[in-house]
Design brief:
Oligomer: single chain
Strand order of the largest sheet: 1-2-3
Number of helices: 13
Radius of gyration: 20 Å
Length: about 290
């Protein structure tokens, strides 16, 4: 899976902005008032790119079938069709990107990412971290996850002895802290604001949407003005969320995935973790 593929043209190196591609795609289908499948077929007819290939380019990193376009020409076609600019989805890699890319793929960064990924992947089987995974035992769950987080901290500290003032150490320590905040929040989405900004789709699981359905938009707005809500969606976000879950429902049926909403949230959470690492180690920070 060519998740981290870069492209070069005239001596300039670019990467495919998958997040912007998905945003532009969703905006286009909302504007045209059509389904994602219909829009993929329209793009396919206009660009010659297979509809199934387009779907794989839209999939979140880490999900089955997800991949980057094989050539820069494909990315240009997407940019021209969706945004009227061939380079809209091609982001130039800064001169220091090489060092940061090496940092992203360093053994320590990959190890810490894997350890945190494994913890977050226990979300469903631990009943949202309320039980020891695979059991109904709520006694000892707090200590169990404290131990897992402690193991990550131990690995980071041991590997960075004598250089804990390094940029890599500071970044990894922050991500570990942020992960611990989520594990102990017992809420959905429960992640820190920085993670919400890096992957806005995690907001689709916020309870504010249930609140709007149950109490109505005006009541929800009043609560938001009173500072009672951590997040409040725009009209676009509400429509995008509807599209998001409609697409997930289709994938659930077509792939016989049988994902519960809890599993869907876990998948988006793991996607967010990957995006946080890419944000912090793979290029210029976005927030």
């Amino acid at each position: 899976m060519n998740t981290f593929q870069n492209y070069e043209e005239n001596g300039i190196e670019y990467f495919f902005d998958r997040t912007e591609f998905k945003r532009a795609f969703d905006a286009a289908r909302l504007r045209k008032n059509i389904t994602g499948e219909e829009l993929r077929w329209i793009i396919s007819e206009e660009t010659g790119i297979a509809a199934d290939t387009i779907l794989n380019h839209l999939r979140s990193v880490g999900t089955r079938g997800a991949c980057n376009p094989d050539s820069i020409e494909t990315v240009k076609k997407y940019g021209k069709f969706l945004m009227g600019d061939e380079y809209a989805l091609l982001k130039q890699i800064p001169d220091n990107r090489g060092e940061q890319s090496e940092e992203l793929h360093s053994d320590l960064v990959k190890t810490v990412f894997g350890m945190l990924y494994d913890i977050l992947a226990l979300y469903e089987t631990s009943d949202s971290f309320n039980c020891i995974p695979g059991t109904d035992d709520m006694d000892g769950a707090w200590e169990y996850f404290e131990g897992l987080i402690g193991n990550v901290r131990k690995k980071l500290t041991a590997d960075c002895l004598g250089r804990r003032d390094s940029d890599t150490y500071q970044k990894l320590e922050r991500i570990i802290d942020e992960t611990e905040v989520f594990v102990k929040s017992y809420s959905v989405p429960g992640v820190v604001k920085r993670w919400r900004a890096i992957n806005p789709q995690i907001n689709f699981f916020d309870c504010v949407f249930d609140l709007i359905d149950e109490l109505g938009m005006e009541t929800a707005r009043a609560l938001n003005r009173a500072g009672r809500l951590a997040y409040f969606p725009s009209d676009f976000a509400i429509k995008a969320r509807d599209m998001y879950f409609a697409e997930k429902a289709v994938q659930n049926v077509e792939g016989n995935l049988r994902y519960t909403e809890t599993r869907l949230f876990q998948n988006e959470l793991l996607q967010t973790l990957a995006m946080v690492f890419e944000n912090d180690f793979g290029g210029e920070e976005k927030c």
